[in-house]
């Protein structure tokens, strides 16, 4: 990781720290920083000077924009990419496995790196959401509509929120640090999560989308965009409802109805239970164990001298297909010889 404090603190960092904690239950695991020196963690440059390639450990990199530089620094060593968001535009060296956190990201690398080992290791909710979330909607819920400002669209903040307040709904826009997010979500009837514009503006994807699942674990009705990995989990009309569904009036009408009668808009227990079970730490550990075995077996073969498979460049594929089509066309134009 680049660092674990200050400007590096974000949802992606918390997920990686959680993964490191879970992996430590399976294999010896060490978190290493490479931008910021920290007293509790070794520094990448120091470790690389101390041990020649290939070295002993399997390295896992994840910080999207830094991945190409990290892979270059770790060339010749066993390494895997823990892929969250997609769309950064870089290609992977031949043989580098991808540990994708969502089917959306898995599909992206299935297209971009089809000859690399591809594994699916979805993110997990922290236990507090499953232990303390009021999934059945019980308890006082003084907030009609909850919005987290970060990643929210201008449409949501500047048009929808004022319109909902004008209808008399209690709308809270949360920003900054909250000591107890579970209690905040437990206090809301409806949660709005609209990240489509945020990610489109950055040119990369919503890697997994934990906030809507956290809201569902707390018994909230979720209205969300369905971009990227959000479509992995939010089955429209079953687990979540679309925000920005055609018109402002339509959004107001549906959100107002959900705040008035949340029970009618919440997912059924039969629909929600499999999603939350699949997002538990136990489920993530069960996925990481065989994924690590596969990655380690792959690197054992490469380090023994087996060459990695390589994907043809897209331009070669396009020209090859065009030439093949041209050849078939020319054959049709040739005169047929009579016997």
Short recap of the structure:
The chain is α/β, with parallel strands linked by helices.
The helix content, as a percent range, equals: 40-55%
pLDDT < 50 runs, ≥5 residues:
none
| Average residue-wise pLDDT | 93
Query: How do the strands of the widest beta sheet line up side by side?
Result: 6-5-7-8-9
Q: Helix tally?
A: 15
Q: How many strands in all? A: 9
Secondary-structure content class: alpha/beta
Query: Beta fraction of the residues?
Result: 5-15%
Note the run of SSEs as H and E: HHEHEEHEHEHEHEHHEHEHHHHH
User: What is the 3D shape?
Assistant: globular
Give me the Rg, rounded.
24 Å
End-to-end distance, in Å?
Answer: 73 Å
Biggest beta sheet attributes: 5 strands, parallel
Protein architecture, described:
This protein has 339 residues and is of the alpha/beta class. Helix content is 45%, strand content 11%. The protein has a five-stranded parallel beta sheet, with helices on both faces. A four-stranded parallel beta sheet has the order 1-2-3-4, sandwiched between helices. Strand 3 (98-100), helix 4 (103-112) and strand 4 (118-120) form a beta-alpha-beta unit. The radius of gyration is 24 Å and the shape is globular. It starts with 10 loop residues before the first helix and ends in a 6-residue tail after the last helix. The model has no long low-confidence stretch (mean pLDDT 93).
